[in-house]
Amino acid sequence: MDSPEAANNAAHSTAATAATSSSESPPVQESPFFSYVNNLSPPINAFKAAYLAQGLPGLSSPHLVFRLPRINSLRETNFLKRARYSQSPSVESNQNDDIGKYSGDDNHDSKKLSSLLPGELVNDAQNDCNIKNYANTQPNSLVRVDDYLADHVEVDCDSVHSLKRDVKQSNDVPKSSVGDSNGPRETLSNFDEKNVAGEKLREPMVLSEQSEEDLQGNPSFKFEKIYMEEEERDVEQPSKEVPHLEPSLSIGLASEKQQCEESFAQNAGGGQLDGYDCTRQLMREPLQGVWGCENYDENTGVTSNVTAQNILLDDSKASQIQCGMRRRCLQFEEDTSNALRNSTIFPRVAKIVINSRAASSSSVLKSQHSSHVALNVASSKKQMLKLSQPITSLFATRCSGNSPLAGSKPSGIALHLNSIVNAVPLARVSSTSTRLAEDYMSVQGMKPASTMNCHVLENMKSCLISSNAVGEASASNEDERHDTSALRAATSSTSESPGAVEHSYLLKHIENPETLHDKRKLCSEHAESFEEFNQPSPRKKMKKSLSTSDGDGCKRCNCKKTKCLKLYCDCFAAGIYCGEPCACQGCFNRPEYEDTVLETRQQIESRNPLAFAPKIIQRVNEFQENNGEEGNLTTPSSARHKTGCNCKKSMCLKKYCECYQANVGCSGGCRCDGCKNVYGRKEEYVATGHALINEMMSSRVVEQRFDGAFNDKLESVSNNTDLLFAELNDLPNLSPMTPSLQFSDRGKGVAKSRLLSGKYLLTTGSDVTVLSSGAKYTKTSKNLESNDVLLETSKEVLAAGSFDWRMDYNVGIMDQSSPICDTDDNVCHLTTLLGPPTTARAMSISSNTRGWSRDPQAQACHRSGSLLSRGSLHWRSSPITPETGLGETKYLECFESDSRLCDILEDDTPEVLKETSTPCNSVKVSSPNKKRVSPPNIHMHELGSISSGGLKSGIKYILKAVPSFPSLTPCIDSKSSSDKTAGNQETRSNS
DNA sequence: GAGTTTGAAACT
DNA sequence: CAGTTTCAAACTC
């Protein structure tokens, strides 16, 4: 485990170089991610999803963070359910002990991390201290998420004790109140704790106390017991009252279980835990957690608080769940380090929540502690932190709490992963509404949560896998939604975002006691969305993780010379720390070297902002347009490698090929020779893309009255399509981003946005734009590959931000949350800006050209540019995008549409117009096939946009387009059409 | 388990 | 940006 000294020296030298370059402390902040996150932090920070960087290994990064959001919702539910759990006392006792142990370890780690990570970590540490005091002093106040986030071991201990007390009290609450009963139930906390401790798993435990005890004492885990408990719980609490919460809780539980297992393996060395068992436990635990959550909600009615706790717990759990999670945590490392401390932090959070709500939460805290124990938990912690941060920020406003953590922590990692998923779930949630969640919950009950956990884990482990998982997830009918969402989530590791959203919701709810009810609904909705995502994804992820992992589900690296500080290292590339299974030599990819890792990451990101982005991007069924809500089904086949492969000899039939390894077909972006990829040949892909494009174009053209000229353009475009297709592949994923969706979400209803996007695409304007964009695009595409385009755009936009997808994730979260969090202007703005993921890029671009800086919001967007760009990526993977039935066009839209969206927002154009504008944007985007799609100069001129730059023009173009749309004439179209046919459109746009 | 092959990542 | 080197995984034996 300990990195060899020699290796250390070498690593230090390397690290030192990196550190020197980037300046040590800021690594996190400096990193685009962090910067973005920080910028976005108030609203977004929390959401940072840990980003599992590379898709192949594990798609989206965003890993952990994303999960957090989900987790949060789940956690809340878990809380409730846990209350029920509280009944099983055995677990609790052990948990406490475990917590203490772990806390100690965590503290060390956390300290190190804090030292390493000046920003977030330090903040965390401080927060921890504050939290401790705070927790002690403040019993009731919801307090600051930050604080509890910051909490470290000490706090944990205290909190744990207090929690135990609380838990006991809560335990007093009757289990019977499954439904909305007000009585607080602490079983949830117990649940988590049990999971964390592992012993918890043994016994169904009941209260947090038991969980604590388990933690302390727990070396051995009995999954079977847990299962039994879960079953019992299920029986006891059939109620679906808090479906939303349940999922989150379940997730949390699952994560905890995993963590427990991990901790076990690592700490206790008890290899008893089998991957299979772990999975089971996870699955079941989530259910339990759900139950507890329900109870909790019913009893306490403090769902918001619960959510926070749950989130934390979930995070920890998630981390636990996947042995690989730790590794994944790299991005989360900061968080993880915190997480280690977090054991305390979570408890604190729980305390806070508990304080506000009563003892029930305390149990949760305990569970959190236990979970934290395992280093692996760190990842979850990070997510937690991220989630908490946003929350904290929110709370901070109220409580004035210092939530330095929120700002600092957001370090980007977390944001990554889940942003997409979150966004999607959120969208879905909004669109689908709670009842689906409820139904789903009722039917699947805890599974969703479990699945969530799995997703998270999977995401954490391998973002890349996510794409695969997505495809898998789509398999089940029931889970189709979930699957699609899961897929998206997986790809983007969106789990976090949902959680973030949930956090926001929670915060609001907390703030407004009145809204508890609403909160529950929201939570349930989120949970549903999460569940949907999670369920399919978790399973898939689990499978994938197992398959990919050596056996433990953890991927191992065998680095000899790189010290696991280069992308050669799968662990490092995936944003996770190397773990026991790794056979690496001189490994610095460990929590102890968090600083080094972060610095190195920053360096790499500085070179390639997308270096840690998921390699595999799921394409939402580009052509599937389900009007938003359901169009999501992303087929595995739709996934494509971000940059493509370069196989010369393997013919893409061996794992040497990253595409093949990721179980995705080759795309136009691949430079492979003699491609025979069984998942899809490059040629086929290109051909398909052309065919699709042609079909779309033709159909649209027909509808729009466009003559053959238009088709010609399309054809020409298609000819160029190799690149375009590649882009489209990416774009589809991006399109899923459905800037329109997010956009709409912000401005209005997500569903509307989706619908609008679809409609718009269909609308003549969209077609026209497509053509025009296509023409342009073709030009660009020649030079740039689709992937390249995306990358370029992202790079340009991001400049610093390496993890665009995180941004996306955040965006998605924001979008979702935004509606809820209307209160915060900042948040809303961010959300709005972010909402259109594509806008992010556009924003960045526009910033250069137009100067979004004008509007503070715009600036924020620009700042988050990296994120935004990421967002575009995210969106691609994000399940949300599915909405964009237009797919291709949508993708294209993503790039420009974002800018457009931003413009629209700025313009204060009527919602309708905005929406319409978004479609236009979408059209443009789609047309480009590539994100950039800078509209031809002509278009620019036509639009009258100021800037000549393609992007700029696109933005301007958008602005005009918006107004034009109302008139039904797509501005973009006018441009595009102007080139060929649409003179009318042009006139319209010009008008 | 050692050696070879392969292609990505890193470097120039 | 292209070419080369380095690296670790994948593969073979």
List keywords for this structure.
two-stranded antiparallel sheet, Tesmin/TSO1-like_CXC, 48 helices, 991 residues, 2 domains, 71% helix, 3 strands, mainly alpha, single chain, disordered C terminus, DNA-binding
Q: Any chance you could write out the topology, listing elements then pairs?
A:
Blueprint: H1 5-22, H2 27-30, H3 32-44, E1 58-59, H4 63-85, H5 89-116, H6 118-137, H7 145-150, H8 153-172, H9 187-197, H10 199-202, H11 208-217, H12 223-236, H13 245-268, H14 275-300, H15 303-321, H16 325-357, H17 360-373, H18 377-399, H19 404-408, H20 413-432, H21 434-444, H22 447-461, H23 463-475, H24 478-492, H25 496-511, H26 516-534, H27 536-548, H28 570-573, H29 594-607, E2 616-617, E3 640-641, H30 658-661, H31 682-704, H32 708-719, H33 721-737, H34 739-747, H35 750-762, H36 764-783, H37 786-798, H38 804-820, H39 825-834, H40 837-849, H41 856-863, H42 865-877, H43 888-907, H44 911-926, H45 937-943, H46 950-964, H47 971-979, H48 983-990
Antiparallel strand pairs: 2-3
Helix pairs in contact: 1-29, 3-18, 3-38, 3-39, 4-9, 4-13, 4-14, 4-15, 4-17, 4-18, 4-20, 4-22, 4-25, 4-26, 5-6, 5-8, 5-9, 5-11, 5-16, 5-17, 6-8, 6-16, 8-11, 8-16, 8-17, 9-11, 9-13, 9-14, 9-15, 9-17, 11-17, 12-14, 13-14, 13-15, 13-17, 13-22, 13-26, 14-15, 14-22, 15-16, ...
The structure holds a DNA duplex (12 and 13 nucleotides).
